[in-house]
Amino acid sequence: MANNSNSNNGHHIRYAVVRLGWIAQETVLPAFAQASNSQLTALVSDDPTKQEELGKKYGVKTYSYGQYEECLNSGDIDAVYIALPNHLHLEYTQRAADKGIHILCEKPMAVTEEECEHMMRAAKENNVKLMIAYRLHFDKANLQAIETIKSGKIGEPRIFNSVFSQQVAEDNVRMEDISIGGGTVYDMGVYCINAVRYLFQDEPTEIIAVSANNGEKRFEKIEEMTSVIMRFPGERLATFTSSFGAASVSSYQVVGTKGDLRMDSAYSYQGELKQQITINQETQEESFSAGDQFAAEIIYFSDCVLNNKEPEPSGEEGLADVRIIRAIYESAQTGKPVKLGTFKRQLRPGAEQIIERPANEQQPELVHAADPSGKS
């Protein structure tokens, strides 16, 4: 059993954030200020400067990776937020679950389907909650897009297309070999895959993928970009391209039999997400503040723990995407289509999961961390 709710009288969940890279420092750590049912109580990093400066800034205990067990046993935490490289998600999830600690794990869930299934078993056997950090499952713009498509406003959705791209620096962890979860599809393509699954409310049956590489040194271990075609039941098609070597673009379009819906900055956690719905050459536009999506997902997960509810973006949701990622790389490597077996997903995000918190206006000062493009 988890050792948490009784120790904090059921009012809030106490977290350790594991790994203090760019995403943790820029978005996760500041988010706790807006999550009243959640408290940051520990940090885990092997960087002594991060431990000292961030521990002091947030007023919490710090641990090295070698002291992870000590952190789990401290009695000061109820949950971990795992922001480690993808190939370490399984190990750190298993170790937390074994100690009765709940797990909020960054996406992609893991590198292989087997690892995902192992994580799900670990959570179930130890009676702890496991959620994968799909922040857009609580974002008003994306959830409203789901409801618009379900309403039939654009007719039957037939086509999905998306581009998600950015420039990534050579020494970034995302540039590691795909065997440990590097590459564009694990990092960025997962957003496109997840989006079409919740917009189409279905799972793909066949994958065709092609990768390209412009030969730059930074792309020695991974592809520069990958383009994918996914066939869905009802003979619907979805396409996307994910890239580490192009300008920042984050958009998708769903084309139905009566009209289309476009989202710009669709996968963003900063600024505005813009939605356009066009029917009979008439376009309606609406802008949504990205708000603090990380606070939203932390609030949601803490609520699931406090009220013993199963999270919607569960381990099964993470597995659904990882099995598609694996099929994409198989198709790109073999040059052949890959058929996917039947996968039933009962729970999908909807408008009832919208959680809005204002954006954190202050840009945190990063300690030994840089954004993926290499900017400090």
TrEMBL record:
Gfo/Idh/MocA-like oxidoreductase N-terminal domain segment(s): 13-134
Annotated Pfam families: GFO_IDH_MocA, GFO_IDH_MocA_C3
InterPro entries tied to this protein: Gfo/Idh/MocA-like_OxRdtase_N (IPR000683), Gfo/Idh/MocA_oxidoreduct (IPR051317), GFO_IDH_MocA-like_dom (IPR055170), Glc-Fru_OxRdtase_bac (IPR008354), NAD(P)-bd_dom_sf (IPR036291)
GO molecular function ontology, one term from the record: oxidoreductase activity
Domain of life: Bacteria
Protein name, entry field: Glucose-fructose oxidoreductase
Entry keywords, A to Z: Oxidoreductase
Domain GFO/IDH/MocA-like oxidoreductase: 144-261
Family the entry assigns: Belongs to the Gfo/Idh/MocA family.
Residue segments, region Disordered: 350-376
